[in-house]
Automatic annotation (TrEMBL):
Claim: Transcription regulation is one of the keywords in the record: yes
Protein name: Transcription factor MYB24 isoform X3
InterPro entries documented for this protein: EOBI/EOBII-like_plant, Homeodomain-like_sf, Myb_dom, SANT/Myb
Lineage, highest ranks first: Eukaryota, Viridiplantae, Streptophyta, Embryophyta, Tracheophyta
The keyword Ribonucleoprotein is assigned to this record: no
GO function terms (MF aspect): DNA-binding transcription factor activity; sequence-specific DNA binding
Domain Myb-like residue range list: 10-62, 63-113
Keywords annotated in UniProt: DNA-binding, Nucleus, Repeat, Transcription, Transcription regulation
Domain spans labelled HTH myb-type: 10-62, 63-117
The organism of origin for this protein: Punica granatum (Pomegranate)
Length: 194
């Protein structure tokens, strides 16, 4: 029985990690013929991979504009702020982070940020200095506005909002001005440890 979406029939479809040779073949083929029509591309390039596998390999790893390396603290702050507005719409969030893929952002959220929030309780507080809104993380529902203030409160908050001496500021890279400043309910050291 022929599997739908395969670039080749039957057991000849290769699964598992991509080799450097396969990567090279795919990159060269796309450079000469452009991307698209992934099932026929896989077959024409001589790859024994599915079209879906070729598409994902290209989009997530081989594209020249894909950014490699760890997510920076500035990018992490932007992800948190965008997640508060857009929820789990990873493709939309990725549009604000050039070179980062939706899959990479989703994985970072689930393995680092969300894990940190769950470990330290669901009451992490985020302060957006641009809009003067204070957010609270409420489990799976995401970030919700709990207060709109004026001015720029300062301080550090590591536990319940009621025990905070002040609020935290978040507004992209400008919030990283002073070491030890609290960001998104965490100290800079916490943020860098994620």
């Amino acid at each position: 029985m022929e599997e739908k979406g395969c670039s080749s029939e039957g057991p000849e479809v290769r699964k598992g990690p991509w080799t450097m040779e396969e990567d090279s073949i795919l990159v060269n083929y796309i450079a000469n013929h452009s991307e698209g029509a992934w099932n026929s591309l896989a077959k024409s390039a001589g790859l024994k991979r599915t079209g879906k596998s070729c598409r994902l390999r290209w989009l997530n790893y081989l594209r020249p504009d894909v950014r490699r390396g760890n997510i920076t603290p500035e990018e992490q702050l932007l992800i948190i702020e965008l997640h508060s507005k857009l929820g789990n719409r990873w493709s939309k969030i990725a549009k604000y982070l050039p070179g980062r893929t939706d899959n990479e952002i989703k994985n970072h959220w689930r393995t680092k940020i969300y894990k940190h929030i769950n470990k330290h309780g669901d009451s992490s507080v985020l302060y957006n200095r641009d809009t003067s809104e204070q957010y609270e993380h409420q489990g799976d529902t995401g970030w919700v506005v709990i207060e709109t203030t004026t001015g720029y409160p300062t301080g550090t908050c590591f536990s319940q909002p009621s025990t905070c001496q002040g609020n935290t500021e978040v507004s992209g890279a400008s919030s990283l001005a002073e070491p030890g400043t609290s960001l998104v309910g965490w100290s800079l050291e916490d943020l860098l440890s994620i």
